[in-house]
């Protein structure tokens, strides 16, 4: 599916407002919500500004979602399975932004 002006979309994620850039085509392909925001008939400022705010998603969770979405289009399912198996503490990924000391400490440990 061709996407008009298939450029980058700016995503502002979490309480600390970490900025990510993703291809519009990836976002609308993996999410009907993003498709409605960026290409639908809704009167969304996101369609005009190509900027989406996701304050309730933790940045680390978004990183994994983004990577998984990118890998999901891959024909090599072993790559996806390997990525999922290697997510450290996968069951502890916060679903919502819980940017308190507990999660910040976990982030630091995961980066080491």
UniProtKB/TrEMBL annotation:
Gene3D superfamilies documented for this protein: Potassium Channel Kv1.1, Chain A
Pfam family, one: BTB
Membrane-spanning parts: none
The organism's place on the tree of life at top rank: Eukaryota
Stretches assigned to the BTB domain: 12-65
Database matches in InterPro entries: BTB/POZ_dom, SKP1/BTB/POZ_sf
Protein name, as recorded: BTB domain-containing protein
């Amino acid at each position: 599916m061709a996407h008009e002006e298939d450029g980058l979309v700016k995503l502002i994620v979490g309480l600390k407002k970490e900025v990510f850039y993703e291809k519009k085509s990836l976002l609308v392909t993996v999410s009907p919500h993003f498709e409605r925001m960026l290409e639908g008939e809704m009167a969304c400022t996101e369609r005009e500004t190509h900027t989406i705010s996701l304050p309730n998603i933790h940045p680390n969770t978004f990183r994994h979602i983004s990577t998984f979405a990118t890998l999901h289009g891959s024909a090599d399912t072993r790559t996806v399975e390997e990525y999922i198996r290697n997510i450290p503490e996968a069951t502890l990924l916060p679903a919502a932004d819980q940017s308190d000391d507990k999660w910040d400490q976990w982030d630091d440990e995961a980066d080491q």
